[in-house]
Specification:
It contains six helices and no strands. It is mainly α.
């Protein structure tokens, strides 16, 4: 198995199923309604919906970086606001997240191991994830899914 195949497997597990640490991101989102996604059980914390929009924005940003674009932040912003708080709007948000994940996963599977040491955006910044290798970035995407999945699990209990 190549390193790219291993990375793709980790991205798949963190997002869809069989994450080592517990539920994947989509497993965590199962059964969340629009009302629950928009709720703010912790007043100063982001809602589940805002977290999902944030994840979707960063998935697209990483894809753009893999394609050679020096994108610093997601086009829609780091923490986009919910535009349509209906159940239909929530389903569209979930579909966007999955489509962006699938597009990123397809791009990753098309990479060669030789690309893993490439620095995708040269500006070194923790806030933008810049200045690190493709390898670190792709591991970071899986970590990002699981980190925010943990937050979502806590928000679902609130």
């Amino acid at each position: 198995m190549t390193e790219i195949e291993r990375l793709a497997d980790q991205l798949q597990r963190a997002f869809y199923r069989d994450a080592w640490c517990g539920p994947s991101l989509l497993e965590t989102l199962e059964g969340v309604t629009a009302a629950r996604a928009a709720a703010r059980p912790l007043v100063r914390a982001h809602s589940i919906w805002e977290i999902v929009l944030h994840l979707g924005g960063w998935k697209r940003t990483v894809l753009q970086r893999l394609e050679g674009q020096a994108v610093r932040l997601p086009e829609e912003g780091d923490w986009p606001q919910v535009a349509d708080a209906s159940e239909r709007g929530w389903q569209q948000t979930l579909a966007m997240l999955q489509a962006r994940h699938d597009a990123l996963l397809t791009a990753v599977r098309g990479l060669s191991d030789a690309r893993l040491d490439d620095v995708l955006i040269t500006e070194s910044s923790r806030e933008t994830g810049g200045g690190v290798s493709c390898y670190v970035t792709l591991h970071g995407v899986a970590q990002h899914d699981l980190y925010h999945g943990g937050q979502i699990s806590l928000l679902k209990k609130g």
